[in-house]
Each structure stands twice: as structure tokens, then as C-alpha cells.
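Side project, low priority. Logging it here so it doesn't get lost.
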Amino acid sequence: MRYIDTLSSDQLRDKKIFLRVDLNVPVENNTVSDAFRIRAILPTLQFLLNAGARVVLVSHISAIDSFASLFSEIKNVLNIECEFVSSFEDAHDRLTHVQCVLVENIRSWIGEEENTLEFAEKIASGFDIYVNDAFSVSHRTHASIATLPRILPAYAGLLMQQEITHLTRALNTPKEGKVVVLGGAKIATKLPMIHNFLDKAEAILIGGALANDFLKARDLPVGTSLVDENIQIIQDILGDIRIHIPTDVRIGNEPYTSAEICDAGDDIGEQKILDIGPRTADMYNEIIAKSTMVIWNGPMGLSEYEPFAEGTKEIAKAIANTKESLIGGGDTIAVVTKLGLLDRYGYVCGAGGAMLEFLGGAQLPGLKALGFYEI
């Protein structure tokens, strides 16, 4: 796999670059609520602009349909001269006058998510070089991720390089002292990573809605808590001593032991498990304190609501004090940003699903198209 910094200024000057980035930022009240992903693209973008290249930024966004209302914020964070355009035809036209443009939401075109060759060839037209700096969407088989790099001379960006380097280290570091912390929901997306790390880590700590799945699978009452329909898929690992699940939980403002979880009334806080309990937080913190490396993805509870954020806060603080850490996922980043701890971790990976798939041993389509697995 080739990285963009192997090209010189002479090789990049005046070249038209298709730069696939991830500007899929969270949006509240039609404004960017967290600019982490915007800032993350700056090293590659600045490298290309400083070399005299002409860059078209290409991304998708899920929270709203268009980048139009967010563009001024994105431009301010990037602190560069850039224009917003609605089509690739307009992008090529404006590149004769400016050095950088952001094109409209790539998923607004038929052919992107369908990954059609016709669409890929159409948007490749007029570009000299393709750069993928969006590791976080490289698990998607979309045209701008999986097919375009097979049409144009293709390179990975500097952010992509960092993500791969740190995630590969997380995989290859000796298991002694390595701890994995997993929260959030969707057991099917986390299970490959759990299986892959059973012989790569000393302990796997489970929280969030994932914990409900393990409790339910052990026939413990979970009331109306969020539980995955496919909990049978964890039957083969239920007794593994390396996997730790909560011994107490928080229902409403009160901690309950696992055996006390029940349907307790009409109030949502009394019916559902919404956080790990204080005893579990203490147990997890003791394990984390003895670690040499911690890998964390997913909050321990419904942390966006203050009454159920305590477990996640405790774990976040404990991981911030470890010797080496790697955290990732949008919800996790949002939590630690709110706590003012973002700079306290060894590496913050902007990816969620792609991080889980990479650490679970899957081959990501975007990396495969760049030749990563041919090494």
C-alpha cells in the first residue's frame, strides 16, 4: 500500500486530487456538535495543499442530507480557503480558481452505496490521483471507497496511516497486561473482536447494552432492558473466565445486584438497566489499573443522560491514567470530549465500525482496494 507522503511536491503540484475523507460529524440544531473528524483530516489536506495540489474533499454525512448548512463551520475549523460545490462538474470548474473544494454529500448520488462501476468511472473522470484518508468508512463497499482506487493511481492518507499503525499495534502487542473494554450495543458487531482477543488479551470487560445480552444469556432477569435478538451467538463464550460482566447495575438512580434486576414499574429508569453499578466500576477499575494497554470502544451505559453516565465516567478516568491506551467510536469520543479527557489517551481512533472490524480480523474493502493485504 502506498502512502501519499511518498510523493514529492513536483509529483503533486497542480494535480487534481480526489481526497476521500470522513466529515460525517454529529449535528445538533443544525450545527456541528463535535469537530474531531474535521480536525483529523488536516495533516493530509495541508500536505497536499502545501505541495501545490488541487483538492476535492469528498465525504458523506448521515445526520442531515447536505453539507451546505455546515460548510462555514467546517471551513472555520479547517482554517483554509475552500469552496462548497454541489457537483463534481462544478468542482472541476472551481479548481481552476481555487485550490480546495468540498463537494456535496457523496451518498446523495445513486451509485455510491450501490458501488456501481459506471458511477465510479464517472466521478473519477478528470482526477489525477485518489487518496483515501477515511479509515472510518473503509469497511464499506461503496464506490468512493472500494472501486475508485482501482481506477485511479491510489494512495492512503496520513490519517489512514496513523489509524492502521495504532490498530496494528493493538493487535500485535503481547497479551500480558492487555485489557479490552467494550460497551454500547449490537453484539454481532462486537463478537468478532471478542473472539479475536480471547487469546490476545488478559481480560475483556463488558458494559453497556452488551452486558444485558450476557446477563440474559445467563438467565438473569433484565426487565425490559435493551437486549439483542441474537443472544444465542454468545453461548459458546459465556463461561470464559477472561470475559467479565457486571456484578451490579444501575436501574434509575439505584444500584442493583444482577439477581435483583426486574420489571419494577412504568418509569423507564425502573424498568431498564441503564448503567453498570458502582461495584462493577470498582472491579473494572482494579483490572484497568494493572494493565499495560487498554483498548476501549463503547460507553458503559446510557451515558448521554447524566443519571446513567457515572459508570462510563469512572471507566473513562481509569483508562486515562493507564500506561497505554487506544479508544475509538463516535459515542466514546463524545463522552471523553465532554469530560475534558480527550488528550489523556494514547491514541484516539475516529473509527467505530471499521475499528471493530479491523480488530476483529476482517479484511476491510477500502484497505483491500489500496493493496494493504497484499503485503
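Brief comment: The chain has two domains: 4-160+364-374, 173-344.
Revisit when time allows.
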